[in-house]
Design brief:
The complex is a heterodimer of chains A (1140) and B (275).
Chain A: H1 9-24, H2 28-49, E1 51-53, E2 59-68, E3 72-74, E4 79-81, E5 85-87, E6 93-95, H3 98-104, E7 109-120, E8 123-124, E9 128-136, H4 151-156, E10 168-170, E11 173-177, E12 179-183, E13 188-192, E14 199-208, E15 214-222, E16 227-231, E17 234-237, H5 238-244, H6 250-257, H7 261-265, H8 268-277, H9 281-291, H10 302-313, H11 324-346, E18 360-363, H12 365-391, H13 400-403, H14 406-419, E19 430-432, H15 438-445, E20 447-449, H16 459-462, E21 486-488, E22 494-495, H17 501-513, E23 518-519, E24 530-534, E25 537-542, H18 545-557, E26 566-571, E27 577-582, E28 588-596, E29 599-600, H19 604-611, H20 617-622, E30 626-630, H21 631-634, E31 639-640, H22 643-648, E32 657-658, H23 681-690, E33 709-713, E34 721-722, H24 724-729, E35 738-744, E36 756-759, H25 760-764, E37 770-780, E38 790-791, E39 821-822, E40 827-829, E41 831-834, H26 838-845, E42 851-853, E43 856-857, E44 864-873, E45 879-889, E46 896-899, E47 904-911, E48 927-929, H27 940-955, E49 959-960, H28 969-978, E50 986-987, E51 1002-1011, H29 1016-1019, ...
Chain B: E1 7-14, E2 17-23, H1 27-40, E3 43-54, H2 60-69, H3 78-89, E4 97-105, E5 114-117, E6 122-124, E7 137-141, E8 146-156, E9 167-180, H4 190-194, E10 200-203, E11 206-209, H5 220-224, E12 230-245, H6 251-273
The chains are: A alpha+beta (1140), B alpha+beta (275).
Bound molecules: iron/sulfur cluster.
Cofactor (chain B): [3Fe-4S] cluster
Keywords (chain B): 3Fe-4S, Cytoplasm, DNA-directed RNA polymerase, Iron, Iron-sulfur, Metal-binding, Nucleotidyltransferase, Transcription, Transferase
Protein name (chain B): DNA-directed RNA polymerase subunit Rpo3
């Protein structure tokens, strides 16, 4: 056996994962899904849905051959190709770059053209091509401008060459479609019925076609032994459904369902019921036609309706035609559902494990866009039909251009993407792309969201399932309500795209022809035959499925069939092997190295070729060295964790695969944690959340990007202690953090509760400096009636004028100049708008138009220098001014920092350098943290990182801290000793204040620290007096509204406890919403003041009123009046203090 | 030499690096000198930058901060320097300032980014007050980008901003002392091999330093010695002070200035007291 003389395991794993990511990128899933969508589903949906018949009958319009865009000249590559376009208000169309879309607040879209074939009675007009709408373009997809551009060209058009793509630009903002985790579609799920109902067992299938047509079919067994099938929420007895599908006799039905007589017994009750309802096919159809509700069918005749329902609403994924062939398929599928139902009921089969990842599918951008497009086209069709009906009165040829309103389709799609509200009722499907740092962007793009209700406990669904190994990151999930429901893909996880319909049927054909699978209907003698399933359907029988599995797997490895096809062996309840072949989309697969006869198929030659780039990842897949397994097939695999295990095993032949990289079970964020295998697991979870808040270089084109807010760290550094994951993911090119000399020691008690002590000189030399940006914008809008906004310095007469000082920094054109220093509330862009009532008042007063100041001012609590002024036009041709203000942020007390091990803390003391302790070499720590941070958190990884960082700094190299395979702590200690340091990482320090040697040796080394985006400058807030709310007259709340700080219940309790009544009154009344009301002592109601007569008037008691003035909280007065308005009569009884 | 007599010995004297051994200098005084060097010895550093043009990707405040970090040759008269320090601390900073000019433009024909380094920072008038090193990278310019600025250097102290500090590390160590109890020792060479700086050896059955100044007081040997015979202590009466200058001032001047500052402060105190 050839030995694995690899330089090091970590090199090999790093190389493999790097080649995977370099070739496919980390957002392949989105790109593949979108590319597939625009290639096929997009056309099918339009052709399927877009059929219009005029209600008046004679005219029929059918959409055909929809295309995305027209090849236009691409100025960047010099070729004719399909690229996104923008239509300016003057109807000129021209190509657009993503950066232009961002800068001008446009959507990055490509037009959809469609041929319409019109038949009017017997006449058929020639097809007319019409623009029907626009489709948002995913960045880096096959129709994106960036596709095929070199690095330099990307920079030229304003893109970051490292940008992953995979998102859309909608109205200038970057939005992603978050992958949705879904239960497998077109697969049968069996579960126990709810405990308090009459249902014993339920068998369900969610049937979805590739064009996003979705229905659920359900069969259930009730306590009285009957089986029902649900079609469109109507309960139909099982026998009736089978009869409607052409299986009339009980015998036929029973033998279709199962050949197990014990199970057949259980059908008796259902047959008895079926007998009374329908005995023939047409009776059954009529029954269904009468029973199933829903106004979607056109015919009124029950039998016709029944037929239509069976065709389109029962298991539509098997076909929507009325042919007997499709019906038989449906009957067979239904039979399988019922067989499973019975098996689970008698206990011979376990209910489906819903959390098993083989039963999960990810719905990606393409699938989700299909839903939106389908809905949008349906709307479009409705509108078109309406327009068509209206135009029928007119004579002449039907002009499609006049009938089509192109904005309708576009608006629907854009609206869904802009709000995240999906037509199927899901919310939050699209989100604004996280751009805090590069990792957070990548992590967001690899996020997987479960549709389960976050309010529900669902404990099992939140737990880590063993089948998530290598597919879902075990660390990265939020804490709190979403724990375990929001997940992130592991580094090497790959999502299947699925075979197209033609590929799929060709493959199924080959199973029959080439591999000797006997189709269902042809089998009469079942002895010795084993079942074969394909995409959830029982498709036939085979003599020896083990052999069939071998054949299929070897064909897959030799590239004859798609590497995505999963071949899994399972066992039926009677112990017979069954073969489950799956090729649908959305399965999470992971690559593994194939082991043949106990030897890895990956040879040192491969490694060398990979390192010299003579081989690519896909070559390895094509050569069958690496294959993708989904969770179903992985159940058949025995995987060695590394080559070592394989080599040292006494039975190497028992292994089928070797893990590519043990650290690749982590997701994008968790993989940057060095020595994470030494940490307590929740710490890795905390860090996964925190790394997404670290400031760094989020994108290299940050200077031109119009982000509404952003941070840039001035001196981001690659970590000295790095991981293969961080390298592969690109963290080292867009880092977010700095290497810091860290001492673990107490310092005057300032380190209490995780606070940090920082060296003043380090801060002054640039540690942790960052720049904060905020974008202010103003549009010069045009209003109906010829009114328009004007960007200028407002005149003093304008309503809402803020005083000349506030406009001081504006240039003549009403916009600040770059590099001007601005402080809170100063105007950034001056603007005057016509008053809302301007037009009416004009005629009344005869004067000029009443105008209003709608200038954009700097946020009250911020300051900054004007960084960039952009003047452009938005999509409606209005002038758009965007001003970016930057603010230099030097670390100050209260700023938050964290290491990569979930150890966060705020700055508590900035120590002058001369007061800091120093080592014999004169090294002064940049930061000091308290040793209490370690014992309870058990972040041993940080201790190892500190030593590793020290070694790396001394040897001027990066240390490999990859979990599981990084440099051993022991060898690092030896290295330290070799370098003349105590191997424990401790040193003798001298106190800078007294000059004494510190009694204890101090643990000191280099640790990577992240500056998190929670900064004091954004939070600091206090007020003495200020605004009040209009309704309650109590002080406003929140920093943004200059609010007061709440004196809450608990604070109130304290004052009561102390008996400090005067202070209590002062806080809650005098300094809050004190108001004086006049009350009539006779009736107890409020009275009003008549200013003409100069006296109080009680509407009830008139002259007899005895009016007194009382001080009450305004909120109390409001409560009284609200009660009165409810018809409740609250009366005030006044008396002197102390009286009862 | 008596046990209490002060002695000073220069151990190492290289440009930019000075090591002096003091005997019988009190810890407080020694530390006082160290702290004064760090915080109170004045140097020139750029403190104000006026941009007339900046089309570089780097912001003004960023460039200004970097310019401040550039060490600048400072006139090295300890007498004047110490007086400047006293004046600054007394609230009368000297008016002395040095103006610099920098203009850099990356011509398009260069074909690559232009690295602007400290040699392009041209002093106006005072020719001596130039950056200590010519090759400190300040920033880079892309094609057609221009930076034009005027900078002003002033005297300042390390305690105002680290850029005024004349040294990078300034450090002293006390003389390590090895106490070896022969009676307790069992034959084991653990403590010798464990020493990361290899400064221990057995001589005539007794553990001794090869060179005490190599010891970093890490106490690894003490921990490794199971019998407890080895003990590492330090002698505060003997210390070595190392000054590593940034280049703006020679280390000897730094040391002398620091001492003068201390003396002047003492003098001020005694004057105020009226003695
Ligand atoms: S204290 Fe450390 S450096 Fe000094 S002799 Fe002992 S082991 Fe060696």
């Amino acid at each position: 056996m050839e030995s694995f003389a690899f330089r090091k395991d970590s090199d090999v794993s790093g190389l493999l994962v790097r080649s995977l990511i370099d070739e496919k990128g980390l957002v392949r899933l989105h790109l593949d899904s979108y590319n597939r969508f625009i290639q096929s589903e997009f056309k099918k949906i339009i052709e399927e849905v877009c059929v219009i018949e005029s209600t008046k009958g004679d005219v029929k319009i059918k959409a055909a051959n929809p295309v995305l865009g027209r090849p236009i000249y691409d100025p960047w590559t010099g070729k004719q190709r399909i690229i996104p376009e923008v239509t300016e208000p003057d109807f000129v169309t021209r190509p657009i770059t993503p950066m232009e879309a961002r800068l001008r607040g446009l959507s990055y879209t490509v037009p959809i053209y469609c041929d319409f074939v019109i038949t009017d009675g017997d006449d058929q007009y020639e097809a007319q091509q019409v623009l029907i709408g626009e489709l948002p373009v995913m960045l880096k997809s096959s129709i994106c401008v960036t596709n095929g551009l070199t690095k330099d060209q990307l920079i030229e058009i304003g893109e970051d060459p490292e940008d992953p793509g995979g998102y859309f630009i909608i109205n200038g903002s970057e939005r992603i479609i978050v992958s949705q985790e879904d239960l497998g579609t077109n697969h049968i799920f069996v579960e126990e019925g709810p405990s308090n109902s009459s249902v014993l067992t339920v068998s369900k299938v969610s049937s979805v076609t590739r064009t996003a047509n979705r229905t659920t079919t359900q069969a259930e067994l009730t306590k009285d032994g009957r089986i029902y099938v649900y079609i469109l929420r109507s309960k139909i007895p099982m026998a009736v459904v089978f009869r409607a599908l052409g299986f009339v006799t009980d015998r036929d039905i029973a033998s279709l369902i199962t050949r197990d007589e014990r199970l057949q017994e259980l059908l008796t009750q259902s047959f008895i019921e079926g007998e009374t309802l329908a005995t023939t096919e047409s009776e059954a159809l009529r029954y269904i036609g009468n029973r199933v509700l829903g106004g979607f069918t056109k015919s009124t005749e029950p039998k016709k309706r029944g037929e239509e329902i069976i065709a389109t609403r029962l298991l539509p994924h098997l076909g929507t035609s009325n042919s007997q062939e499709v019906k038989t398929k449906k009957a067979q599928f239904l039979a399988l559902m019922i067989e499973r139902l019975l098996e689970v009921n008698v206990g011979s089969r376990q209910p489906t494990d819903k959390d098993h990842y083989a039963n999960k599918r990810l719905r990606l951008a393409g699938d989700l866009l299909a839903i939106v497009l389908r809905n949008a086209v349906q709307n479009f069709v409705k509108d078109l039909r309406h327009n068509l009906d209206r135009s029928r009165g007119r004579k002449g040829r039907i002009q499609m251009k006049a009938l089509v309103s192109a904005n309708l389709l576009t608006d629907k799609i854009v609206h869904a993407l802009a709000t995240g509200n999906w037509p199927d009722g899901r919310t939050g499907v699209s989100q604004i792309l996280d751009r805090v740092n590069y990792l957070s962007t990548l992590s967001h793009l690899r996020r997987v969201v479960s549709p389960l209700n976050r309010m529900h406990a669902n404990p099992e669904a939140r737990e880590l399932h063993m089948t998530q190994w290598g597919r879902i990151c075990p660390s990265e999930t939020p804490e709190g309500v979403n724990v375990g429901l929001v997940k992130n893909l592991a580094l090497t996880a790959i999502v299947s795209v699925g075979l197209t319909e033609t590929e799929s049927s060709r493959f199924e054909d080959s199973l029959y022809r080439r591999h000797g699978v006997q189709p269902l209907s042809s089998v009469t003698n079942f002895t010795g035959l084993q079942r074969v399933y394909f995409d959830g359907r029982l498709i036939g029988y085979h003599q020896n499925v083990h052999q069939l599995a071998e054949e299929l797997r070897s064909r897959r490895r030799s590239g004859q069939i798609s590497p995505e096809i999963s071949v899994a062996l399972t066992a039926s309840p009677d112990g017979k092997p069954e073969l489950v072949v799956t090729a649908d989309s959305g399965r999470v697969m992971r690559p593994l190295i194939v082991v043949r006869n106990g030897e890895s198929a990956l040879t040192p030659k491969h490694i060398e070729d990979l390192a010299t780039q003579r081989l690519k990842w896909s070559d390895l897949v094509a050569a069958g060295v690496i294959e993708y397994l989904d969770a179903a097939e992985e159940e058949n695999a025995t995987i060695a964790v590394d080559f070592e295990t394989l080599k040292n095993s006494s039975h190497p032949e028992k292994y089928t695969h070797v893990e590519i990289a043990p650290w690749a079970i982590m997701g994008v964020v968790a993989s940057i944690i060095p020595y994470s295998d030494h940490n307590q697991s929740p710490r890795n979870t905390y860090e996964s959340a925190m790394a997404k808040q670290a400031l760094g270089l989020y994108s290299s084109n940050f200077r031109i990007r119009p982000d509404s807010r952003g941070h840039i760290l001035h001196y981001p550094q690659r970590p000295i202690v790095t991981t293969s994951g961080a390298r592969v993911v690109g963290f080292e090119k867009r880092p977010a953090g700095q290497n810091v000399i860290l001492a673990v020691a107490p310092f005057e008690g300032y380190g209490i509760n995780d606070a940090l002590i920082i060296n003043k000189a380090s801060v002054e030399r640039g540690l942790g400096r960052s720049t904060f940006f905020r974008l202010y914008e103003a549009v010069e809008k045009k209003y109906p009636g010829g009114f328009t906004d004007k960007i200028s310095i407002p005149e003093q007469t304008v309503r809402g004028y803020r005083g000349s000082k506030m406009y001081e920094k504006l240039d003549e054109d009403g916009i600040v100049l770059p590099e001007t220093m601005l402080y809170g509330d100063e105007v950034v862009i001056g603007r005057v708008s016509p008053s809302r009532f301007g037009s009416q008042l004009q005629s009344v007063e005869g004067g000029g138009i009443l105008q209003q100041d709608t200038s954009v001012a700097l946020k009250h609590s911020e300051q900054g220098r004007v960084d960039r002024v952009i003047i452009t036009f938005d999509k409606d041709g209005n002038r758009l001014v965007r001003v970016r203000v930057r603010d230099n942020r030097v670390p100050e007390l209260g700023d938050k920092f964290a290491s990569r091990h979930g150890q966060k803390g705020v700055l508590a003391y900035v120590v002058p350098q001369e007061d800091m302790p120093f080592t014999p070499q004169g090294i002064v720590p940049d930061m000091i943290i308290n040793p209490h941070a370690f014992p309870s958190r058990m972040t041993v990884g940080q201790l190892i990182e500190l030593i590793a960082g020290k070694v790396g700094a001394l040897e001027a190299r990066q240390v490999d801290g990859t979990p599981f395979i990084g440099e051993e702590p022991q060898s690092l200690k030896e290295a330290l000793k070799r370098l003349g340091f105590n191997p424990a990482g401790v040193e003798s320090l001298i106190d800078g204040r007294t000059g004494e040697r510190l009694q204890a040796e101090i643990f000191i080394g280099v640790v990577y620290y992240q500056k998190l985006h929670h900064m004091v400058a954004d939070k600091i807030h206090a007020r003495a007096r200020g605004n009040v709310q209009i309704t309650t007259r109590q002080p406003t709340e929140g920093r943004a509204r200059e609010g007061g700080l709440r004196f809450g219940e608990m604070e109130r309790d304290v004052l009561i406890g102390h008996g400090a009544a005067a202070l209590l009154k002062d806080r809650l009344l005098d300094n809050s919403d004190k108001t004086t009301v006049a009350v009539c002592e006779n009736c107890g109601y409020f009275v009003y003041f008549d200013s003409r007569r100069g006296e109080y008037v009680c509407p009830i008691d008139g002259n007899k009123a005895k009016v007194s003035l009382v001080s009450v909280p305004y909120a109390f007065k409001l409560l009284m009046q609200e009660l009165i308005s409810l018809g409740i009569s609250p009366r005030l009884k006044l008396g002197e203090v102390g009286e009862r | 030499m008596s046990q209490t007599e002060l002695s000073v010995k220069v151990i190492e004297d290289k440009p930019g690096l000075l090591t002096v051994e003091f005997s019988n200098l009190r810890r407080e005084v020694l530390n006082g000198i160290r702290r004064t060097i760090l915080a109170e010895v004045p140097t020139l550093a750029i403190d104000e930058v006026l941009f007339t043009e900046n089309s570089s990707p780097i912001y003004g405040e960023y460039i200004a901060h970097r310019l401040g970090m550039v060490p600048i040759k400072t006139p090295d008269d300890p007498e004047i320097l110490s007086q400047i320090s006293i004046d600054i601390q007394g609230g009368n900073p000297p008016n002395m300032r040095v103006e610099y000019q920098l203009r850099a433009e990356c011509p398009p024909q260069l074909g690559q980014p232009l690295t602007v380094s400290s040699d392009m920072l041209k002093p106006l008038g005072v020719e001596e007050a130039r950056p200590v090193y010519d090759n400190i990278q300040l920033f880079k310019l892309g094609q057609n980008q221009v930076v034009e600025l005027q900078a002003t250097a002033r005297y300042g102290l390390g305690k105002q901003h680290a850029k005024f500090s004349p040294v990078s590390p300034v450090v002293y160590i006390y003389k390590p002392v090895l106490i070896f109890d022969k009676t307790k020792d069992e034959p084991c060479d653990q403590h010798v091999s464990v020493c990361p700086t290899n400064c221990l050896e057995y001589k005539h059955g007794e553990l001794v330093f090869t060179n005490p100044w190599d010891c970093i007081l890490c106490r690894a040997c003490e921990k490794a010695c199971k019998s407890g015979a080895t003990k590492i202590m330090w002698d505060e009466s003997v210390a070595r002070l190392t000054i590593e200058a940034t280049g703006s001032l020679p280390p000897k001047v730094i040391l002398k200035t620091a001492i003068l500052i201390l003396l002047k402060k003492f003098k001020l105190v005694s004057e105020k007291v009226g003695a």
